[in-house]
Amino acid sequence: MSSSHIWSLFHALIVVFTSFLCYTLESYYIYSISISFVYILLDLIIHTSEIDKATGVHHFLFLAFTSYAIFIDNSFASIIYKYIGIFEVSTIFLNLYHMYKKEIYGLLFVASFFISRIVIGAYITFSDAYYFISQHTIMSYINSILGIALYILQVYWFWKIVMKLKRRMSK
């Protein structure tokens, strides 16, 4: 059992919990997003040698999003947190799979990844992009580009997951 999986599971549980809590206590978005900012930053520092390029891009995009929300526009935190809370549900099952090697966790990971990051993620990404573009500011265009880039990364990861499943099933 890897300490990075335990750390990631702990983060995902906190994020999912605080994300749903923030839907009722809106003023807590900035604190919740700060937790994720610190986690991603520490993950980069502690696990630098273990991070592949796709994860590095994910971390960079996430730090760009959260930095903007924390340091420039606090109201943006509520928009970002829709992504984090929903996306991190799949991370819980991924870490449980790595920790216990039970197929049920693997299946729950794939299903939750597809539903949360691909299906719901498409809706959030493109509805937010539409909202941002309608603002007609440089920062709104940058936010749209960052959101779409993050979504493309999710699609890339899902493609990798499907290819891995395909290889496993053909054995």
In terms of topology, how is this protein built?
Elements lengths: L2 H20 L6 H18 L6 H20 L3 H25 L2 H31 L4 H32 L2
Labels describing this entry:
globular, 171 residues, mainly alpha, 6 helices
SS content category: mainly alpha
Give, in order, the helices and strands.
HHHHHH
**What about the largest sheet?**
none
What is the count of helical runs?
Answer: 6
Computed CA radius of gyration, to the nearest angstrom:
16 Å
Low-confidence stretches: none
DSSP strand count = 0
Helix content: over 70%
Beta fraction: under 5%
Q: What coarse outline follows from CA principal-axis ratios? A: globular
Rounded mean pLDDT is 83
Gap from first CA to last CA? 26 Å
Q: Mind explaining what this structure looks like?
A:
- The mean pLDDT is 83.
- Helix 5 packs antiparallel against helix 6 (138-169).
- The chain has helices spanning 3-22, 29-46, 53-72, 76-100, 103-133, 138-169.
- The protein has 6 helices and no strands.
- Helix content is 85%, strand content 0%.
Please provide a brief summary of the model:
The chain is built from 6 helices and no strands. It has 171 residues and is mainly alpha-helical.
